[in-house]
């Protein structure tokens, strides 16, 4: 989460005339070939365990700040990029945002190519190839590059107060967070949600009532109808660790649906193809206590899928209308049974389909499930149990589970993954943050 601290300014009249032009059918911005990092083996690097030709290609983030390509056919694991976070994936490869800015496409064959987005430090690439860029600091200008051959256009001046931007699915509108900071330390992070229409017109959609509150974690629903944000009541890391309000905001009307308190784990909010939202509801610093998996249906109703006083459900993943998640008994932190994977520390995968609810046939401690696009297989993020008194680095493994609704066969692919912090603050690993998968490019 980046909390912007800027001074509130008035939008100039000249800015309003800078319209967002409807994108034409164009290829993505022309990538610039980039040399891959030289291999630098270390104790933090992941380890390839074996080959699995039907696993496809994985781009995996190691604890050594390096992105690795795993080839299922050969079992080879090699460094292809570094110092970046996974943002999305397509049939071409995976997109990574550098920790200090810039967008890079790492193709499934391992070639890394920078995307030229504009003069701003941070880039936002739409599905149509339109790219918006902006900076964080004194100059917060927003630039848009319509095609790979076009010159970036200034659409918002530096003093407007931009702190984040996201494209709608049609690549015609931009959803924005704008600083509305006050003059005191308590009001320094206050901001509001705005929408920029295709003609450049700006409209404030929602602003927190309290001058000390602010929004973070901006996301846009796949069809572009809703914005999803977390609302913090005050600037406080302690309050954030206890959980904050999750808001679903309809962009056309400004209608706000308050979905309850959630931890700041954005990968735990997942949209289905048909417009349903799965999220993990419940505050508190202990991850495996008081957490429910909830689905917001298209009619606005909320359905508690799993989780009660005795059980916890986390890490949802969709495939079509089918829903997958990780479940286990509540608790496990007090006697460290969580890291030992016994009793309250045993976690398993669950699959909900039209045929009913079933536990996944995997003999291990499950931290994440991610089905392939065709539903025939799934990636399993598993934990090696440990008898050590606390969390240990690199206790996670990636497995391929084939024929998940039939005989099921599991193959271990990669080990030596993962950091510390499990069991608290929602710092669970996510297969959508850790891995880009050619068999599930999203």
What's the short version?
The chain has 442 residues and is mainly beta. It has helices spanning 13-16, 237-242, 337-340, 431-434, and strands spanning 31-34, 47-48, 57-61, 66-71, 77-82, 84-89, 93-98, 103-107, 112-115, 122-125, 131-134, 142-145, 153-156, 162-167, 174-179, 191-196, 202-206, 214-220, 226-232, 244-250, 256-262, 270-271, 277-281, 292-296, 302-306, 311-319, 322-329, 347-353, 356-359, 365-371, 377-383, 396-402, 409-417, 435-437. The two termini are 22 Å apart.
Give a written overview of the molecule.
The chain is mainly beta. It has a domain at 1-30 and 116-262: Methylamine Dehydrogenase, Chain H (7 Propeller), CATH 2.130.10.120. 4% of the residues lie in helices and 43% in strands. It is built from four helices and 34 strands. It has helices at 13-16, 237-242, 337-340, 431-434, and strands spanning 31-34, 47-48, 57-61, 66-71, 77-82, 84-89, 93-98, 103-107, 112-115, 122-125, 131-134, 142-145, 153-156, 162-167, 174-179, 191-196, 202-206, 214-220, 226-232, 244-250, 256-262, 270-271, 277-281, 292-296, 302-306, 311-319, 322-329, 347-353, 356-359, 365-371, 377-383, 396-402, 409-417, 435-437. The strands form eight sheets. Strands 1-9-8-7-6 form a five-stranded antiparallel beta sheet. A hairpin with a 5-residue loop joins strand 10 and strand 11 (131-134). The longest helix has 6 residues, at 237-242. It is globular, with a radius of gyration of 22 Å. The chain starts with 12 loop residues before the first helix and ends in a 5-residue tail after the last strand. The relative contact order is 0.12.
């Amino acid at each position: 989460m980046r909390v912007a601290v800027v001074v509130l300014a008035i939008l100039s009249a000249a800015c309003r005339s800078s319209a967002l032009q409807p994108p034409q059918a164009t290829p993505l911005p022309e990538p610039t070939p980039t040399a891959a990092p030289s291999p630098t083996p270390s104790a933090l690097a992941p380890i390839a365990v074996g080959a699995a030709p039907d696993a496809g290609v994985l781009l995996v983030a190691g604890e050594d700040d390096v992105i690795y390509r795993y080839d299922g056919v050969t079992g080879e694991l090699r460094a292809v990029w570094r110092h970046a976070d996974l943002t999305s994936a397509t049939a071409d490869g995976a997109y990574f945002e550098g920790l200090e800015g810039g967008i890079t496409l790492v193709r499934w064959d391992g070639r890394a190519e920078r995307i030229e987005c504009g003069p701003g430090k941070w880039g936002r690439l739409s599905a149509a190839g339109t790219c918006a860029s902006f900076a964080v600091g004194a100059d917060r200008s927003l630039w848009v590059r319509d095609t790979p051959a076009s010159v970036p256009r200034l659409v918002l001046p530096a003093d407007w107060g931009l702190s984040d931007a996201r494209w709608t699915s049609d690549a015609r509108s931009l959803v924005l967070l704008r600083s509305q900071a006050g003059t005191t330390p308590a009001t320094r992070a206050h901001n509001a949600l705005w929408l920029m229409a295709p003609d450049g017109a700006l409209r404030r959609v929602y602003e927190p009532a309290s001058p000390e509150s602010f929004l973070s974690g901006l996301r846009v629903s796949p069809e572009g109808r809703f914005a999803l944000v977390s609302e913090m009541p005050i600037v406080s890391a302690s309050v954030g660790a206890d959980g904050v309000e999750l808001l679903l905001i309809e962009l056309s009307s400004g209608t706000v649906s308050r979905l309850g308190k959630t931890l700041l784990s954005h990968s735990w909010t997942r949209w289905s193809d048909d417009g349903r939202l799965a999220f993990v509801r419940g505050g508190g610093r202990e991850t495996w206590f008081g957490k429910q998996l909830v689905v917001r249906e298209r009619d606005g109703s909320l359905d508690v899928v799993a989780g009660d006083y005795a059980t916890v459900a986390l890490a949802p993943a969709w495939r079509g209308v089918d829903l997958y998640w990780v479940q286990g008994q509540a608790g496990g932190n007090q006697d460290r049974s969580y890291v030992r994977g016994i009793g309250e520390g045993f976690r398993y995968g669950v699959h909900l389909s039209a045929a009913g609810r079933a536990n996944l046939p995997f003999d291990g401690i499950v931290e994440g499930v991610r089905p392939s696009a065709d539903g025939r297989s799934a990636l399993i993020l598993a934990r090696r149990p440990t008898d050590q008194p606390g969390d240990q680095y690199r206790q996670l493994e990636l497995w391929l589970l084939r024929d998940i609704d039939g005989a099921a066969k599991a193959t271990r692919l990669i080990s030596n993954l993962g950091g510390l912090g499990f069991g608290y603050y929602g710092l669970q690993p996510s297969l959508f943050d850790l891995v880009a998968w050619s068999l599930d490019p999203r």
